Each structure stands twice: as C-alpha cells, then as structure tokens.
Amino acid sequence: MKWLALLLVLSNAVVWWVANREAPPADQVQGQLPRVASIKLGAEEADQHRCIRVGWFETKEEAKQLAERSGLVYFVEERERTLSPLNWVLIPPQPERAALDQLGELRREGVEAWLVTQGEYRNAISLGLFESRSAAETVVAEKKRKNLDVVLAKFTRNRIGYALVFEVEPKAESLPVQAVEAESGKKFEINEPAPCKGIARPDKSP
Q1: Taking Cα atoms as reference points, which of 82, 64, 57 lies closest to residue 161?
Q2: Domain residues of the chain, as ranges?
C-alpha cells in the first residue's frame, strides 16, 4: 500500500509539472500587449495624413517640377475640367450648299468666317467666339445692321487639366499652399482637401 500511495503522489506531481510547463508564463502573455498597442498607434498616425489638391497646370511635367522644387510628398492628378462657355456669334444652320455659297461671299468681303461641320450647329457659319458677352452682342448688332441673320449661342468646352495633390500637416494646411503659390508665381483656381490615395512616401516605391 505504501508503494501504491507513493506512485499516486509522483503521478500527480508529474501531471502538475507538465500542465504548468505548457501554459505560457504571465510575463510572456503581457509582453504581447505593447505590440498590439503599437499597431493601433501606427493606424492612428496614418489617419493624421491629410492632403490638399491645387491647380490647374497645363502639363503634368509642370506640376511635377513645382512639387519637386518645393520638396513635397505628392502625386499629379489628371482631370477633365469644365471651362466657362464662350459666346458664339453664328449665322444659323442652313442647307450645306447655301452655307458654302454664303461663306464664300463673306470671305470675299473680308469677313473672318468658318463653316461649322459637326454637332448641333452643323452647316452654321461661325463669326467668332468671345469670352465677353457684351463684346459678342456688339458683333451681333453690327452684323444685323448689314442685314445678316445672326444669333448668339453658348459654346461649351472641356479641357484636360492637371492638379497637384500633396501631403500637409493637419494643423498647418494653409502654409504649404501659400509656399507653393509663391513658388509657382500664380494663384490657384482650386485649393481643396483631397484623399491621400496615390501618395508615394519616401519609404515606399513610387
């Protein structure tokens, strides 16, 4: 019986030792916590990145050169911009043969005129495009005094432009924009917040 009791005691001791050996020490479990906290902190820091979009630039290269001179973390965005419509002085559309005959007569008189070959005003005769409505209305009045049937229409236009998107400090957004404007020598038409997607930071491949 004594030997049996001794064996039971030893068996319990071995089981206890194995169970405690497999469980990770308390200090090792706690050692994982700073790693999780650092990941969370990294995410919070990433959220602090803010970007500004400024433009417009005529070419992508112009925007890149300015960004590199200014030492910015940036990317260049290509966008279609809608420009203000122009005021279009027209002789209304007519049959093609009649339009060509009138166009020839106007040119012989020294009038600058062009045939519209497509779109809503196909076979109309263009007498000029004007940014100023008052200037266009003056031309309309002049042509009507010469007994020409003229109208004023809107000439819509789109254009590819390039915007510079760059990273700024959240608490000092206006200062970098002012510096870039000073470097470029012009006032930007657009100056607005933008997502930082596409920014290539120094620790990443461009």
Answers
A1: 57
A2: 49-206
